[in-house]
Design brief:
The protein is α+β, with helices and mostly antiparallel strands. The chain has a single domain, classed as Gcn5-related N-acetyltransferase (GNAT) (Aminopeptidase, 3-Layer(aba) Sandwich), CATH 3.40.630.30. The chain contains 2 helices and 4 strands. It has a 4-stranded mixed β-sheet with strand order 1-2-4-3. The radius of gyration is 13 Å and the shape is globular. The relative contact order is 0.22.
Length: 86
């Protein structure tokens, strides 16, 4: 499992242009190639001012809420590899 600690677009004018999504796609592909099983991050609800990014981005990328004990910063998870059966 890998913990993503930062996915932040500092230039406010560049936000919403797809850079975060593209960067996250590249991170996911790299981690899959390296054989990691999952990616986790603390996202932020309703506010883009967070180093790891906005929760809505992760939900659109098929992450799910693993733990929401902190309602403002839920722990999000993405399964990189399906479990092998048998």
């Amino acid at each position: 499992m890998v913990l993503l600690t930062s996915l932040f677009i500092a230039d406010i004018g560049a936000r919403g242009q797809g850079f975060g999504r593209r960067l996250l796609e590249e991170v996911i592909e790299d981690l899959k190639m390296r054989g990691f099983k999952a990616l986790e991050t603390f996202a932020r609800r309703g506010n883009a001012n967070n180093p790891s990014g906005l929760m809505q981005l992760y939900l659109r990328m098929d992450f799910y809420v693993k733990n929401d004990m902190n309602p403002e910063f839920p722990l999000m998870r993405f399964e990189l590899a399906a479990e092998k059966v048998g």
